[in-house]
């Protein structure tokens, strides 16, 4: 079965510090992995994806993610957090061509 | 450019009443369409997806149904709402190319918050 896990319910970081939001995956075959962000009472916004190629993927708003096949991880990172980055972040995997499985979400709190 | 609309934005309905939520996509053709429910501001549960007009796949047996009467219209319905149907309903789409493997991301609508009392 295809799945992703986000082990942290919440991540707290000070503004200006680097941030990491963790995601591990379990898939059969090649993984197609995605990160989304959700602000309160809004739909999800796409940040970045890994399909193949370079393990470091760059996305929107200065975010990047590192794909690690041996550790089956796809952690989201940003070198310097902003207060406006505070939101709910979802990792997702695409499987069976048409379906997406989303993690449980990680709430990011960036404090000034 | 492509846009996705959902309405209504919020809805309060009594238990046992019917439901109809609508999602429409502009600026693309033959998209894959999806309905998700998000409970308590957390994980997304895939409810239905559609690869074409009249083609609906149900992921979870439940009190809801979906229809796709037109290429860019996706409707979520219920004949009788339950308290457990409360949640944030999200519509999403991807664009796929005929005969080609595609790993495109989903684009989400603004959502409908449903409260069943």
Structure in words:
The complex is a heterodimer of chains A (112) and B (117). Chain A has 112 residues and is mostly beta strands. Chain A contains no helices and twelve strands. The radius of gyration of chain A is 13 Å and the shape is globular. Chain B is mainly β. In chain B, a hairpin with a 2-residue loop joins strand 5 and strand 6. Chains A and B meet through strand 6, strand 10 and strand 11 of A and strand 4, strand 5, strand 9 and strand 10 of B.
Helices and strands in order:
The complex is a heterodimer of chains A (112) and B (117).
Chain A: E1 3-5, E2 10-14, E3 19-21, E4 24-26, E5 33-38, E6 44-50, E7 56-58, E8 64-68, E9 73-78, E10 87-95, E11 99-102, E12 106-111
Parallel strand pairs in A: 2-12
Antiparallel strand pairs in A: 1-4, 3-9, 5-6, 5-10, 7-8, 8-9, 10-11, 10-12
Chain B: E1 3-7, E2 10-13, E3 19-26, E4 31-38, E5 44-52, E6 55-58, E7 65-70, E8 73-78, E9 87-95, E10 107-108, E11 112-116
Parallel strand pairs in B: 2-11
Antiparallel strand pairs in B: 1-3, 3-8, 4-5, 4-9, 5-6, 7-8, 9-10, 9-11
- % residues in beta strands of chain A: over 45%
Order of helices and strands of chain A: EEEEEEEEEEEE
The amount of helix of chain A comes to under 10%
- Distance between the terminal alpha carbons of chain A, to the nearest Å? 41 Å
Q: Report the uncertain regions of chain B.
A: none
Report the major sheet of chain A: 6 strands, mixed
- Kindly state the mean pLDDT of chain A as a whole number? 94
Q: How many DSSP helices of chain B?
A: 0
Would you tell me the structural class of the helices and strands of chain B?
A: mainly beta
| Count of strand segments of chain B | 11
Task: Please report the two chains with the greatest interface, counting residues with C-beta closer than 8 angstroms to the partner's C-beta.
Answer: A-B, 24 and 26 residues
The backbone outline of chain A, from C-alpha atoms, is globular
Cα gyration radius of chain A (Å) = 13 Å
User: In total, how many beta strands of chain A?
Assistant: 12
Question: How much of the residues of chain B is beta strand, in percent?
Answer: over 45%
Write down the overall geometry of chain B.
Answer: globular
Ends distance of chain B: 38 Å
Oligomer: heterodimer
Average pLDDT level of chain B:
91
């Amino acid at each position: 079965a295809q799945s992703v896990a986000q082990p942290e319910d919440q991540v707290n970081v000070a503004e200006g510090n680097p941030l990491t939001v963790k995601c591990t995956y379990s898939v059969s075959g090649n993984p197609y992995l995605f990160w989304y962000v959700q602000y309160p009472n809004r739909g999800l916004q796409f940040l970045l994806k890994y399909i193949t190629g370079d393990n470091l993927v760059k996305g929107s708003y200065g975010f990047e993610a590192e794909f690690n096949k041996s550790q089956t991880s796809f952690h989201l990172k940003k070198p310097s957090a902003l207060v406006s980055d505070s939101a709910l972040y979802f990792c997702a995997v695409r499987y069976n061509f048409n379906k997406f499985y989303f993690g449980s979400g990680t709430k990011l709190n960036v404090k000034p | 450019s492509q846009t996705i609309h959902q309405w209504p934005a919020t809805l309060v309905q009594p238990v046992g009443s019917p439901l109809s939520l609508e999602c429409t996509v502009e600026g693309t053709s033959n998209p894959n369409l999806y309905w998700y429910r998000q409970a308590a501001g957390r994980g997304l549960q895939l409810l239905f997806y559609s690869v074409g007009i009249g083609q609906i796949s149900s992921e979870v047996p439940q009190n809801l149904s979906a229809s796709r009467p037109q290429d860019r219209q996706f409707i979520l319905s219920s004949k009788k709402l339950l308290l457990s149907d409360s949640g944030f309903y999200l519509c999403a789409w991807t664009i796929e190319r005929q005969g080609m493997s595609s790993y495109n991301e989903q684009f989400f609508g603004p959502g409908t918050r449903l409260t069943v009392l």
